[in-house]
Amino acid sequence: MSVTFATGFSAAGVAAGISAVAGKKDLALVVNNGPLDAAAGVFTSNRFCAAPVVWSRKAVANGHIKAVILNSGGANACTGEAGYAQSLATAEKVADLLSLSDASDVAVCSTGLIGELLPLDHVLSGAEHAYAALANTAEAGADASHAIMTTDTKPKTVELTGSTGYKIGGMVKGSGMIAPQLATMLCVITTDAVVSAGQLQAALAVATEHSFNRIDVDGCMSTNDTVLLLASGASGIEPDKDEFNELVRQACASLARQIVGDGEGASHDIRITVTGATSEQAALACGRAVAASNLLKCAISGNDPNWGRIVSSLGTVPTDIAPYDSNKVTVDVNGVRICENGGAGRDRSEVDMTGREVHIDIDLNAGDAEATVWTDDLTHEYVHINADYES
Amino acid sequence: MSVTFATGFSAAGVAAGISAVAGKKDLALVVNNGPLDAAAGVFTSNRFCAAPVVWSRKAVANGHIKAVILNSGGANACTGEAGYAQSLATAEKVADLLSLSDASDVAVCSTGLIGELLPLDHVLSGAEHAYAALANTAEAGADASHAIMTTDTKPKTVELTGSTGYKIGGMVKGSGMIAPQLATMLCVITTDAVVSAGQLQAALAVATEHSFNRIDVDGCMSTNDTVLLLASGASGIEPDKDEFNELVRQACASLARQIVGDGEGASHDIRITVTGATSEQAALACGRAVAASNLLKCAISGNDPNWGRIVSSLGTVPTDIAPYDSNKVTVDVNGVRICENGGAGRDRSEVDMTGREVHIDIDLNAGDAEATVWTDDLTHEYVHINADYES
């Protein structure tokens, strides 16, 4: 279903010849048919952000977006003015097809190899093809979610329904180069609820902070991360604000969780929950430090709940950021307390590591705040994907 | 030669039955025979620092150390009061053997698995064995450098001679869990120069900052890092202060470089030099961000000079830490400018990646400061070592 689950949206996904994989769907178009065109966006904080990020950040600034065109097969990052001109030409093409007077009603997203211009003629002819294929069907939404995939092994979508009948749909691509700072990867979320751009932006900011900003596949922040939230108002329903914000949060959390589940080469999804912290920021800093440990991620891929590698990562977090006493820290892996008071607890051979999910629960015993982050293990397959293929 | 290159020192390396590898040399003893016993030390900043670090930091605080006992086969980290008692008992045993009145004249270093106590009876009987084997020969120094190895594939030593005839020798172990903050791994450097503890500490602080603190094998800071610098004064030579500091710096740089050369599973040693920065700190922050990129390290292991992964890592460094204009950045890999003005330069197929060393030169074009860091590539073998073995 993806982005077409919410009424008032049509979508398409086509093979435009941008990707090096012949015949792969590589161009998606999402159109908001209204009556509203409220929109919000969150973007990468990478200083080498891509041309489409520069364009889309400006386009969404006034709170109005009528269409999003997304391509895989090329990031259009580090491509200078020529790359920016490509993003502009792409937006103008879509505006022309949709008879929009202003190209800045069109957001542009790209993903793929950094440093090369796109085959613009393929993008523009693909836009025509996608325009002709636009539909508000489940199949069209699925096509769009396939067209944005790169090293992803499966499409990632979400569908939620509010208590009063409005709907939220979404799609995301992401598998590697995942370590967000403000946002991550290409994501389009749609709703037919009647909401203002201001409310969308507020909901999206909170939702991304607690979802895309709390996953880390490989510690590498992308140049192209974009999360867009579009409202058509087609349901005519004004949602309860708190419920709407919660559903946007759930949609982002589901999509972020799916990214971890499809992390490059991963054999385990790892949930790290830090409790007993003096602040949420302290808990988050500890969780992120553990999630970034290559040694731990290798151990998990070998089914070894190596708590020494967990606490040695915790020990790198400065005291002023996360006050705690190392002699009071406990660590449970999949429910077995293998580290107690900063030292050995139950034998780690008691931990069942056969499942896909690994749950690491760290109690700092220093306060009442907590945070959860998700990451993947580090496998031979991750090295294979990133050493032996060009991406 | 190792630590016995400088006169006034004797050493031994023996198999004490601490390591799980039967017959492996796993206990080293280094004794300063004087006439001086000046010493300096730098230690890990990890908050879960090991018992021997707690002990040795206190022991060296007064500027006097007469002997160092080092074991592989167990880190004695996260072992609480029982672990500290083991370090103390080990120091007391050595003091007893050497007829020293104060156990705090003996530093203790351990490396191996975190979270388990040492087999203390083996350590103590090994200390007797090592004491009996003490010699000031090249072979004895070599034995010591072998006894501290864990996943290291080769011993790492250095020998330097001052212009007036004094000598500096050293040994280090380190291969994985290398990402220093203040110091790294187990290192003992000896000199027969006549220098005070204060001068030793000053020389060591500067030298470690520019050597061990500028290498990063896997981003993981150890709980046990210790660097000790001992002076016997046996040459009777008071060195030129600047020359002595420079030689200590060279000794640390050589040993740090050897750690990178023996990084777990590495197939390439990567030198990252950042020039044109507004400050050395800015250059260092940029170099470290690039050195930490798993995606880049995988690309290098696949002989791909993927500059997109270099600039996307640079782009994560906050502007207030390293001001630069992303449109002015250049990147050379092995002398080929593959990124120019933040975009594509010469074709990356021109880069010869066949050598062990890879040189990445980044010019921020923002100032006159520079810094160099070293790291390794990320290979299947690294994952194998850390996923499939327990360490």
TrEMBL record, chains A, B:
<comment type="similarity">
    <text>Belongs to the ArgJ family.</text>
</comment>
<keyword id="KW-0028">Amino-acid biosynthesis</keyword>
<feature type="binding site">
    <location>
        <position position="173"/>
    </location>
    <ligand>
        <name>substrate</name>
    </ligand>
</feature>
<feature type="binding site">
    <location>
        <position position="264"/>
    </location>
    <ligand>
        <name>substrate</name>
    </ligand>
</feature>
<keyword id="KW-0511">Multifunctional enzyme</keyword>
<dbReference type="GO" id="GO:0004358">
    <property type="term" value="F:L-glutamate N-acetyltransferase activity, acting on acetyl-L-ornithine as donor"/>
</dbReference>
<keyword id="KW-0068">Autocatalytic cleavage</keyword>
<dbReference type="GO" id="GO:0005737">
    <property type="term" value="C:cytoplasm"/>
</dbReference>
<feature type="binding site">
    <location>
        <position position="184"/>
    </location>
    <ligand>
        <name>substrate</name>
    </ligand>
</feature>
<dbReference type="InterPro" id="IPR016117">
    <property type="entry name" value="ArgJ-like_dom_sf"/>
</dbReference>
<feature type="site" description="Involved in the stabilization of negative charge on the oxyanion by the formation of the oxyanion hole">
    <location>
        <position position="112"/>
    </location>
</feature>
<comment type="pathway">
    <text>Amino-acid biosynthesis; L-arginine biosynthesis; L-ornithine and N-acetyl-L-glutamate from L-glutamate and N(2)-acetyl-L-ornithine (cyclic): step 1/1.</text>
</comment>
<dbReference type="GO" id="GO:0006526">
    <property type="term" value="P:L-arginine biosynthetic process"/>
</dbReference>
<keyword id="KW-0055">Arginine biosynthesis</keyword>
<keyword id="KW-0963">Cytoplasm</keyword>
<feature type="site" description="Cleavage; by autolysis">
    <location>
        <begin position="183"/>
        <end position="184"/>
    </location>
</feature>
<keyword id="KW-0808">Transferase</keyword>
<dbReference type="Pfam" id="PF01960">
    <property type="entry name" value="ArgJ"/>
</dbReference>
<dbReference type="InterPro" id="IPR042195">
    <property type="entry name" value="ArgJ_beta_C"/>
</dbReference>
<feature type="binding site">
    <location>
        <position position="386"/>
    </location>
    <ligand>
        <name>substrate</name>
    </ligand>
</feature>
<comment type="function">
    <text>Catalyzes two activities which are involved in the cyclic version of arginine biosynthesis: the synthesis of N-acetylglutamate from glutamate and acetyl-CoA as the acetyl donor, and of ornithine by transacetylation between N(2)-acetylornithine and glutamate.</text>
</comment>
<feature type="active site" description="Nucleophile">
    <location>
        <position position="184"/>
    </location>
</feature>
<keyword id="KW-0012">Acyltransferase</keyword>
<protein>
    <recommendedName>
        <fullName>Arginine biosynthesis bifunctional protein ArgJ</fullName>
        <ecNumber>2.3.1.35</ecNumber>
        <ecNumber>2.3.1.1</ecNumber>
    </recommendedName>
</protein>
<dbReference type="GO" id="GO:0006592">
    <property type="term" value="P:ornithine biosynthetic process"/>
</dbReference>
<dbReference type="GO" id="GO:0004042">
    <property type="term" value="F:L-glutamate N-acetyltransferase activity"/>
</dbReference>
<feature type="site" description="Involved in the stabilization of negative charge on the oxyanion by the formation of the oxyanion hole">
    <location>
        <position position="111"/>
    </location>
</feature>
<comment type="subunit">
    <text>Heterotetramer of two alpha and two beta chains.</text>
</comment>
<feature type="binding site">
    <location>
        <position position="391"/>
    </location>
    <ligand>
        <name>substrate</name>
    </ligand>
</feature>
<feature type="binding site">
    <location>
        <position position="150"/>
    </location>
    <ligand>
        <name>substrate</name>
    </ligand>
</feature>
<dbReference type="InterPro" id="IPR002813">
    <property type="entry name" value="Arg_biosynth_ArgJ"/>
</dbReference>
<comment type="pathway">
    <text>Amino-acid biosynthesis; L-arginine biosynthesis; N(2)-acetyl-L-ornithine from L-glutamate: step 1/4.</text>
</comment>
